[in-house]
Write a structure and sequence with these properties.
It is a single chain. Helices cover 46% and strands 8% of the residues. The chain is α/β, with parallel strands linked by helices. The protein has a 4-stranded parallel beta sheet with strand order 6-5-7-8, with helices on both faces. Strands 2-3-4 form a 3-stranded parallel beta sheet. Strand 3, helix 11 and strand 4 form a beta-alpha-beta unit. Helix 12 packs across helix 13 and helix 15 packs across helix 16. The longest helix is centred in the middle third of the chain and has 18 residues.
Length: 392
């Protein structure tokens, strides 16, 4: 098999637990064994269209065989044979124009000013790398929490995670090499990153393609907890609220660390957690990656609304999360479902406990993203295929 297949066939004993424990498929164990054998043999299986790319299967594999990487490889084969629906091009980084570049043309003046300043890629030893998700929600940076930090990032410095998530592994390798060179030129020694997707790409994924990032990578949850423990982050008052937590897919490659840490941070803010039915290792995707298997935009919205409804069913005062992408996807679900419970990024809850009043623009931002997405979906034939060229 090609070098892009990172599934460890030798360690897999076909126990079937990966598809049996999958929160989407939940196949009976005998069927799970049969369907995974089909995946190994390259035979047709519904797993490839039903999978929402939540990565749960990796966490339940007792042999650390990385079954998710086999699914990615089969998607890669499909992608190489058939290409992607044309509508996908609008939602992928390094394809311009895309929804992000169009969105950035319509930001409020204060956010435009911030994003423009971040795009100045000057040499710095310590940076805050916002990633695309925080660039699209740049109002999250409007806080004393981030004073004296150098924000460095743009769409041209995107981590490229969506390409990997859909199985475009050749393109992922191109992006890995591009980013390796860019970060070497920047001279970075320490990077604080709010997005666990980007963290996973830099720490775990791109090294498989031979890329090296020889600097310290600090997820924002670690950074926040360190400041809380050291007393550098002053909590002026406890929030006294109940939330439920959406554990994003990209927390799963790190084991229980960020499930636990997000809850510890919330506890320190005076926030009680009501768990959703699907949490931690069995957490559902927010919906963003549901497109990966089926190539249907509707599946993104349906998965997002299912997740938001599960949050409402907990009876919590709010939904808390620690991924910017999950915030705008689930905010779209809130709009469509006419939901009642608000959605907070952990950063916003920290700001509130510090005595600040966050801008809270997630609903208006989600509305704009949804309008752009629907306009593009209506413009193109979703069944039309295209071959993705090299990244720009």
């Amino acid at each position: 098999m090609a070098s892009y297949n990172f599934f460890d066939r030798d360690s897999c004993d076909l126990c079937g637990l990966c598809l049996n424990q999958c929160p989407i498929m939940e196949l009976p164990i005998d069927q799970a064994k049969t369907e995974f054998k089909k995946l190994i043999d390259g035979e047709e299986t519904g797993v490839l269209t039903k999978c929402t790319s939540c990565m749960t299967c990796n966490n339940f594999c007792p042999n650390d065989s990385h079954p998710y990487e086999l699914i990615l490889y089969r998607w890669y084969e499909r992608y190489k044979e058939k290409g992607l629906p044309l509508v996908a091009k609008f939602f992928l980084p390094y394809q311009f124009p895309n929804f992000g570049s169009v969105l950035l043309e319509n930001l409020p003046e204060d956010e435009t000013k911030a994003v423009d300043s971040w795009a100045k890629l000057e040499k710095r030893e310590e940076i805050f790398y916002p990633g695309c998700n925080m660039i699209f929600l740049s109002y999250l940076s409007f806080s004393k929490l981030f004073e004296n930090l150098a924000f460095v990032g743009s769409q041209e410095l995107c981590c490229g995670e969506p390409w990997y998530r859909i199985g475009a592994l050749e393109t992922s390798e191109q992006i890995a090499k591009k980013l390796e060179k860019q970060f070497q030129n920047l001279g970075v020694k320490r990077m604080i990153i709010p997005c666990l997707a980007g963290c996973n790409m830099f720490k775990n994924v791109y090294p498989r393609f031979g890329a090296k990032f020889d600097f310290e990578i600090v997820p924002v949850l670690d950074w926040l907890w360190e400041k809380i423990e050291e007393g550098k982050l002053k909590i002026k008052h406890k929030l006294g609220m109940t939330v439920t937590i959406h554990d994003n897919c990209q927390s799963k490659p790190f084991g229980s660390k960020y499930y636990d840490l997000s809850r510890k941070i919330l506890d320190s803010l005076g926030v009680k957690v009501n768990e959703m039915e699907h949490n931690r290792d069995k957490s559902l995707c927010c919906g963003m990656a549901a497109f990966a298997g089926s190539h249907r935009v509707d599946d993104i919205l349906n998965a997002a609304m299912r997740r938001y409804k599960e949050a409402e069913d907990t009876g919590a005062d709010a939904l808390a999360l620690y991924c910017g992408g999950c915030q705008w996807v689930l905010s779209i679900a809130k709009i469509l479902a006419q939901g009642k419970i608000p959605i907070f990024h952990v950063i916003e809850l920290v700001q509130m406990a510090m005595g600040e009043k966050p801008p809270r623009r997630n609903i208006e931002r989600a509305q704009k993203i949804f309008e752009l997405a629907m306009a593009e979906a209506a413009r193109v034939d979703p069944n039309e295929k295209f071959w993705v060229e090299k990244i720009q």
